[in-house]
Fold:
Amino acid sequence: MLLHAIYHRPKGNFAYAYDKDTIHIRLQTAKDDVKRCYVIFGDKYDWENQRSIKFMTNLYSDELFDYWQAEIVPYNRRLCYMFKLESDDEQYWYTEYGFHDSQPSYVNIMFEYPFLHEVDIFTPPNWVKDAIFYQIFPERFANGDISNDPELVEEWGNTPTRDNFFGGDIRGIIDNINHLENLGINALYLTPIFEANTNHKYDTKDYMKIDPHFGDIDTLKELVSKCHDRGIRVVLDAVFNHCGYYFAPFQDVLKKGSKSRYWDWFYIHDYPIKKSPRPNYATFAFEYHMPKFNTSNPEVKEYLLDVARFWIEEVDIDGWRLDVANEVDHAFWREFRQVVKTAKPDAYILGEVWHDAAPWLQGDQFDGVMNYPFTNLAIEFFCKQSIDAKEFANCLNKFMFRYPHQANQVLLNILDSHDTKRLLTQCKGNKKLFKLAVLFQMTYIGVPCIYYGDEIGMVGGDDPDCRRTMIWDKARQDKELLEFYRDCIALRKEHVVLRRGDCKFVYASGSQVVMKRYTDYDQLLIAFNVSDKWASIDIPMEKGKIYNIKLAPYGYKIINLKDVRSEKQCTAQSHI
Structure:
């Protein structure tokens, strides 16, 4: 037995409260090394009388490790525990003090979850599990009010640049709510809408004012109200890592230097302030027009937390997406969560973190993050075909084990965004591959998010090309893709198991992958063939039976395991 590969640590993603009664206990072992795992658990104050043993399930695997899990309901909310590990010819007991040849009885050397406090449970908003998000870049979605257009506004449909404007606004979103409702989405994420000088608005000038080219607070209230009437939640973008160059406190620093009352709001290295060749003050990246906030400054903290509270209380928004979230201190985000959840307990707090986000997903900061590891793997497997199914599944399993299960359920699964190439462009225009990626997004664990225009076949390269104006001319919209999106969204809404069930890959080889979504009541298989050839896959079933799946080139099947004789497919299947 490869003891050096066996790992567990209390708390974090290896031992956490899932709900007020249940603790998830997890263990890592070398792949295909340990045959059986058990967790022996009890109350440390009454170990002899209150002790149980539970078999652990091999939940996920990747190329190096197996990941095991057991659900424990602890006695008296207290839990101490150890593991029993068995291979074909060895057995060990594993405690906080290491490995033992015989079962220890000394309680103080065991792992411990001291007490299950309900207040400490990581509980993301329940509604998010059922959400299908739609991301809008307001300046490019629709121009509903030409009276508030910027100067030199360009004709809708011209080539986007980093600096040009097209007049998109909040009124344009209101005018097209029917499109969103007919698509089936039930949540909106808007990139920044507060006053700023750029078209993207990530350089905020006034956090308490809607950008005049977008509308005003009454326009936003109307949008939120009309969305809520249709069961659509609205999440706004919070840019709290940095402000804009023309933010009034930073302008005061430019004029007064160290005598400014706002000097410590920022990280100023020396004076006078210089913008080039690189700014002599901290910024987002090295963008001089985005000075970085010192969020440990009490006045900065109070100002930004007031902003977060105000827009929830005044407009009734449903959450915040947090820009460059990993570059802001954890202490700030902990206070931010308290403020936001006090204002609206079921508000969704979504961080922009492109890498391992475990430090932010412990229940004291964010509810979820933008799941860019998912994005990258989906692009590599479905669009570029640069990795095979085994690597695809292994990597997703590895990432799944990083976070508590309740975090995985509300990660925002994106295939593209305002910061990346569009999905159809990544697929080099191949709609068959595009559809497979979309179907996987709509059936995988987590929350799918559609980037505006993907549903009607929009293309675009890297920023700023991915920020083209929405195509509203129906003659130029891809009706086949639009119908496919509607079918996939309807499928997700129809099956609770796709929104709230567990997830496991039951086959991954070559260009074919089969995923099982399951609860105690439902089981679906979703099979994908990322190949231009027919494929035949055998899936082991209960009692030694084998179920065979035949997949057309670039085909897929959705199979209800309640009755494997009945196969349900999206109506767009015939188009693939």
Notes: The chain has 13 helices and 27 strands. The radius of gyration is 26 Å.
